[in-house]
Amino acid sequence: PEPLKVLGKRKGLNVGNALSKHHLHNPAYTALMARECNMLVAENEGKWQALEPRQGAYEFGPADELYAWARSQGMLVRGHNLIWQDAKWLPKWVNAYDFGTQPAQAAEALLRKHIVAVCDHFGDAIHSYDVVNEAVDPKTGGLRVNVFTERLGAVEQMDLAFRVAHERAPKAQLVYNDYMRPDTGSTKHRAGVLKLLHDLKSRGAPVHALGLQSHIGSWDEMGTGDQQREWRRFLDEVTGMGLDLLVTEFDVNDRKLPADVAKRDAGVAALAKDYLDVTFSYRQCKDFLMWGMADNFNWLQSWDEAPRTDGLKMRPTPFDDQFRAKPLRDAIAAAINAM
Ligand code: G3I
């Protein structure tokens, strides 16, 4: 079959995948990605925690290696991410930072220093940045609190992050990235994201697109009317603000689907087709990135918060452990062709 990137090219859609540094030592996997994709995002190596694990001790090596490989394949690169609002994923030293007697100035200086260091190091190698990741608390729809929001105000801090990124990476697309979903369990999350985007836009922050992480699952039954309507309402409002859409971290959680592999794979493919048909119907949707292309290279296998109750391995990605295409791959291809 034709590679996904070839199908995507006809529709103006980039097709990408999240790669980790250790995957570079798996030639069959990199060959699969090179065949199907024209875009790369580092699964972990571009995060602050990875880039500056100890204050001042930058470790750009792993991200550099991934981006160099992408460049050698003619791929575009997405930078993920400059600021992760969830304190749990900020470097420990940042959470313990001494902001002194002028905490607002010190917080601004620290934020600025990080973004400048990263943008200056990578330069034009980065086509698109997730400037801010996961700022909205899904339970309340309010903004998450961290050492920066406490000292600068949350919207002010994110506005600053976008401005500094734009200053230092003027050609890069700047993205707010989050995991809001179509279902009713995500109503507050979607509302919180819309409010944040409106607030950032009204301050004139240079935000260009919304990253739809798209870790979908049985909850996203788009076929069933209401949720599809809600998702469209959400995407209408986002695109109405002049923002582009990116599917940034696609995979399908199959924990509610039957154990039988054929049934499960068919269920996964159906969920994906419904979700992507609606999402790809927006001409503003320009990128589609998978969060791992093969089942054994996907974070859900080691995510213990909500495993399958039968203990079976998940089948969340388009290719199996032997890199054989699954029905999900056909569903993605069909959704791209229907754009
Ligand atoms: O690298 C260390 C290793 O040295 C250590 O021995 C090992 C022991 O736990 O941990 C390794 O770090 C792990 C890292 O992934 C690299 O594999 C962390 O524990 C683990 O928590 C981390 O998880 C990543 C997670 O983000 C948190 O950063 C997942 O791989 C990654 O898939 C996941 O990706 C996120 C996106 O960034 C944002 N959206 C949601 C998505 C899925 O959770």
From TrEMBL:
Organism annotation = Duganella margarita
Outline the extent of the GH10 domain: 1-335
Report keywords, A-Z. Carbohydrate metabolism, Glycosidase, Hydrolase, Polysaccharide degradation, Signal, Xylan degradation
State its Enzyme Commission number(s): 3.2.1.8
UniProt cross-references to InterPro entries, sorted A to Z: GH (IPR017853), GH10 (IPR044846), GH10_dom (IPR001000)
For the keyword Signal, the answer is yes
Q: Name one Pfam family in it.
A: Glyco_hydro_10
Full protein name? Beta-xylanase
Q: Which domain of life is it from?
A: Bacteria
| PANTHER family xrefs | BETA-XYLANASE, GLYCOSYL HYDROLASE
Q: What is the lineage of its organism?
A: Bacteria, Pseudomonadati, Pseudomonadota, Betaproteobacteria, Burkholderiales
- Family to which this protein belongs: Belongs to the glycosyl hydrolase 10 (cellulase F) family.
Q: Which reaction does it catalyse?
A: Endohydrolysis of (1->4)-beta-D-xylosidic linkages in xylans
